[in-house]
Amino acid sequence: MLITTQDKFEDREIATTLGLVKGNVVRARFFGRDILAGLRMIVGGEVMEYTKLLAEAREQALDRMLANAEATGADAVVTVRFTTSMVMQGAAEILVTGTAVKLR
């Protein structure tokens, strides 16, 4: 399946717009990671535990959006956007949205 953040593909024509597709995941921090992250904050630098957590969450949300697009019969998804919001202390939602389309 093709995906893009643009509203079209340069080499393909959109035949039909099928509608909004989305995928989301809510991830909470893990106590063990918090201890390591706290130590990193003391010495400075990237908090790799959270970087990995958010990267995994983005991939899972993207996979869910693509599954939603496949269920509609889409060939591609255009105007893909990622958003992140805090749901509660220590938990964040990653939401991926796009427009499912059929290509010629």
Strand count: 4
State the shape: elongated
CATH architecture: 2-Layer Sandwich
Sheet with the most strands? 4 strands, mixed
Mean pLDDT, to the nearest integer, reads 88
Question: How does this structure look, described?
Answer:
- This protein is of the alpha+beta class.
- It has one domain: Hypothetical protein apc22750. Chain B (Translation Initiation Factor IF3), CATH 3.30.110.70.
- It has helices at 31-43, 48-71; strands spanning 2-3, 14-28, 76-88, 91-103.
- A four-stranded mixed sheet has the order 1-3-4-2.
- It is elongated, with a radius of gyration of 17 Å.
- The mean pLDDT is 88.
Features:
2 helices; 104 residues; 4-stranded mixed sheet; single chain; alpha+beta
What's the arrangement of secondary structure elements?
Blueprint: E1 2-3, E2 14-28, H1 31-43, H2 48-71, E3 76-88, E4 91-103
Parallel strand pairs: 1-3
Antiparallel strand pairs: 2-4, 3-4
Concise structural overview:
The chain is an alpha+beta fold and 104 residues long.
